[in-house]
Amino acid sequence: MNQRMLYFVIVLMQIVVLTNVTLFDSKWNGFMMFICTGLFILGTFFYLKGTGKLDQHNNRDSH
């Protein structure tokens, strides 16, 4: 599931960049960069959750 979500986030990032360049003529660079940064953080979350590093960190804090 996490691999699919990570792939979906990457596809969304590419669509955002493509839309900015083709439809908006690169006039919305700041806003699109903000969206891509949020998607990157979301993708990082899915990656960490998929590798189990996020769960290991939570288990270490609970003991």
The shape is: elongated
The first-to-last residue Cα distance is 28 Å
Largest sheet: none
What is the number of E strands? 0
Number of helices: 3
Strand content: under 5%
Point out poorly predicted stretches: none
Order of helices and strands: HHH
Helix content: over 70%
Average pLDDT number: 89
Structural category: mainly alpha
Nearest-angstrom radius of gyration?
15 Å
Your description of this structure?
86% of the residues lie in helices and 0% in strands. The chain has 63 residues and is mostly helical. The protein is elongated, with a radius of gyration of 15 Å. The mean pLDDT is 89.
Short description:
The chain has 3 helices and no strands.
Which characteristics define this entry?
63 residues; mainly alpha; 3 helices; elongated
